[in-house]
């Protein structure tokens, strides 16, 4: 099998995501429930695109506006206003795909374990066999309530998918089941769908009926057996969502460890699907890495670190701290108990110590902010020291202002910098000062009253 996503040309993907998913017991559509840092539906979309789909059409229904606004304009949408079965859902896309001249992948939106590699295998077999339909199947020890795959005993082509409740005792012994993932010739697919009827207790149009009809008409119906039986697992409840999260999290941990990352305690470590971690980095217990996060090599992350949507360089240490939507340079030490709110750019070999908070701050290389400081809407030059208890007063009640601190400056302990204000290169501020005016380069800024001692005051009191 080729590694190229373009091994089969002109692929369209049709993702079914219109159901009400009442068993989730949620005001949020099932398709948008988060799974390892992204909406559940994203897994199917990304797998299809990675397998070479040039077009992706999503069938939406329940709370369609929310689904479309969340996923954005990168996809085509068709509406299934009434949920009348999987066959009916596919029919909604006929107008969009009736002239498509390549294979159409059809898959559910709640199948996060289906990989791009597996879809490529399905598409290549479908193309090689010039099939009207090719099913992705799995073999289970206990097929339970899944639909059984019935094959011709001589040709081994699929002749039907029989629901468990309709199966004969002999058919119930079949372990091969359908996964609801298919590759179709679109013209033959839509022609078959126009011929099926809702002759069942639910009064719905089943996509599986189209499979049986194509086989009866002499069309080639093939199947590819997945080596991983877990791919049949979908999401109907929050319990199932949690179970799939555990499976995916274990796969992520395994892949990272095989790539050279140490995860000290996987049971207390959460790493989202889009997190990247470099070689020889160690992830300590009680760490959460989420969103689109990129961590370099030789880092020490945790214990107790929470990092989301951020980029960290090499040899970075983060202990018992939060970092959100920020960049941190090589060799920087963060924590314990630091809080980097969104919008920070931190240089190399910076020290951000305990109970230091940053927000929309830029810190150049070799800056030290060791203790109990707040730097918001601030710019700090290289090699500057920020004394303990320093704060930038960036908000005047109406709008935010910036504080500029130059290179090689020394901001004394408990300095209050009232923005907008600039501290020049090499300047100092005296400890305990409230600085409301610019301090020139190499100057000392003092903003406090002169000390006066009252002799005998305590005794008189």
Automatic annotation (TrEMBL):
GO biological process, one term: peptidoglycan biosynthetic process
Localisation: Cytoplasm
GO CC annotation terms, alphabetical: cytoplasm; membrane
Database matches in InterPro entries: Bifunctional_GlmU, GlmU-like, GlmU_C_LbH, Hexapep, MobA-like_NTP_Trfase, Nucleotide-diphossugar_trans, Trimer_LpxA-like_sf
Positions bound to Mg(2+): 110, 236
Chief location: cytoplasm
Note describing how the cofactor binds: Binds 1 Mg(2+) ion per subunit.
Binding site for acetyl-CoA: 388, 394-395, 431, 448
Annotated stretches, region: Pyrophosphorylase: 1-238
Pfam family of the protein (one): Hexapep
MobA-like NTP transferase domain: residues covered: 13-136
Keywords of the record: Acyltransferase, Cell shape, Cell wall biogenesis/degradation, Cytoplasm, Magnesium, Metal-binding, Multifunctional enzyme, Nucleotidyltransferase, Peptidoglycan synthesis, Repeat, Transferase
Required co-factors: Mg(2+)
Catalytic activity annotation: alpha-D-glucosamine 1-phosphate + acetyl-CoA = N-acetyl-alpha-D-glucosamine 1-phosphate + CoA + H(+); N-acetyl-alpha-D-glucosamine 1-phosphate + UTP + H(+) = UDP-N-acetyl-alpha-D-glucosamine + diphosphate
Enzyme Commission (EC) number: 2.7.7.23, 2.3.1.157
Pathway: Nucleotide-sugar biosynthesis; UDP-N-acetyl-alpha-D-glucosamine biosynthesis; N-acetyl-alpha-D-glucosamine 1-phosphate from alpha-D-glucosamine 6-phosphate (route II): step 2/2; Nucleotide-sugar biosynthesis; UDP-N-acetyl-alpha-D-glucosamine biosynthesis; UDP-N-acetyl-alpha-D-glucosamine from N-acetyl-alpha-D-glucosamine 1-phosphate: step 1/1; Bacterial outer membrane biogenesis; LPS lipid A biosynthesis
Binding annotation for UDP-N-acetyl-alpha-D-glucosamine: 16-19, 30, 80, 85-86, 147, 163, 236, 341, 359, 374, 385
Record GO terms (molecular function): glucosamine-1-phosphate N-acetyltransferase activity; magnesium ion binding; UDP-N-acetylglucosamine diphosphorylase activity
Enzyme's top EC category: transferase
Region (Linker) residue spans: 239-259
Record keyword Translocase present: no
Alphabetized Gene3D superfamilies for the sequence: Hexapeptide repeat proteins, Spore Coat Polysaccharide Biosynthesis Protein SpsA, Chain A
Family: In the N-terminal section; belongs to the N-acetylglucosamine-1-phosphate uridyltransferase family.
Role: Catalyzes the last two sequential reactions in the de novo biosynthetic pathway for UDP-N-acetylglucosamine (UDP-GlcNAc). The C-terminal domain catalyzes the transfer of acetyl group from acetyl coenzyme A to glucosamine-1-phosphate (GlcN-1-P) to produce N-acetylglucosamine-1-phosphate (GlcNAc-1-P), which is converted into UDP-GlcNAc by the transfer of uridine 5-monophosphate (from uridine 5-triphosphate), a reaction catalyzed by the N-terminal domain.
Quaternary structure (record): Homotrimer.
Annotated protein name in UniProt: Bifunctional protein GlmU
């Amino acid at each position: 099998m080729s590694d190229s996503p373009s091994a089969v040309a002109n692929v369209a993907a049709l993702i079914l995501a219109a159901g009400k998913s009442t068993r989730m017991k949620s005001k949020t559509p099932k398709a948008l429930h988060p799974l390892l840092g992204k909406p559940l539906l994203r897994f199917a979309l990304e797998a299809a695109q990675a397998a070479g789909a040039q077009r992706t059409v999503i069938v939406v229904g329940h709370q369609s506006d929310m689904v479309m606004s969340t996923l954005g304009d990168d996809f085509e949408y068709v509406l299934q206003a009434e949920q009348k079965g999987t066959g009916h859902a596919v029919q909604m896309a006929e107008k969009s795909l009736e002239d498509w001249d390549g294979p159409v992948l059809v898959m559910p939106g709640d199948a996060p374990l289906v990989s791009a590699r597996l879809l490529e295998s399905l598409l290549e077999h479908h193309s090689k066999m010039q099939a009207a339909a090719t099913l992705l199947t799995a073999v289970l020890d206990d097929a339970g309530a899944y639909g059984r795959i019935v094959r011709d005993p001589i040709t081994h082509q699929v002749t039907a998918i029989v629901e468990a409740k309709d199966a004969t005792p002999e058919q119930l012994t079949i372990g091969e089941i359908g996964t609801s993932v298919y590759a179709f010739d679109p013209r033959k697919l839509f022609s078959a769908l126009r011929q099926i009827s809702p002759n069942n207790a639910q009064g719905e149009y089943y996509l599986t009926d189209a499979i049986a009809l194509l086989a009866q008409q002499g069309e080639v119906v093939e199947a590819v057996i997945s080596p991983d039986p877990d791919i049949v697992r979908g999401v109907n409840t929050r319990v199932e969502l949690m179970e799939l999260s555990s499976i995916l999290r274990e796969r992520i941990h395994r892949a990272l460890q095989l790539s050279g990352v140490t995860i000290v305690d996987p049971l207390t470590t959460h790493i989202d699907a889009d997190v990247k971690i470099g070689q020889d980095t160690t992830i300590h217990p009680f760490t959460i890495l989420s969103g689109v996060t990129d961590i370099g090599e030789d880092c020490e992350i945790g214990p107790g670190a929470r990092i989301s949507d951020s980029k960290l360089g090499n040899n970075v240490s983060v202990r018992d701290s939060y970092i959100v939507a920020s960049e941190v340079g090589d060799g920087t030490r963060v924590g314990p108990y630091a809080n980097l709110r969104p919008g920070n750019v931190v240089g190399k070999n910076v020290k951000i110590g305990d109970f230091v908070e940053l927000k929309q701050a830029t810190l150049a290389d070799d800056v030290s902010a060791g203790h109990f400081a707040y730097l918001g809407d601030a710019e700090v030059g290289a090699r500057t020291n920020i004394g303990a208890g320093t704060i930038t007063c960036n908000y005047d009640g109406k709008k935010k202002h910036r504080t500029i601190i130059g290179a090689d400056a020394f901001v004394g302990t408990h300095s209050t910098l009232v923005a907008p204000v600039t501290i020049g290169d090499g300047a100092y501020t005296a400890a305990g000062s409230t600085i409301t005016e610019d301090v020139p380069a190499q100057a000392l800024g003092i903003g406090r009253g002169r000390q006066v001692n009252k002799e005998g005051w305590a005794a008189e009191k």
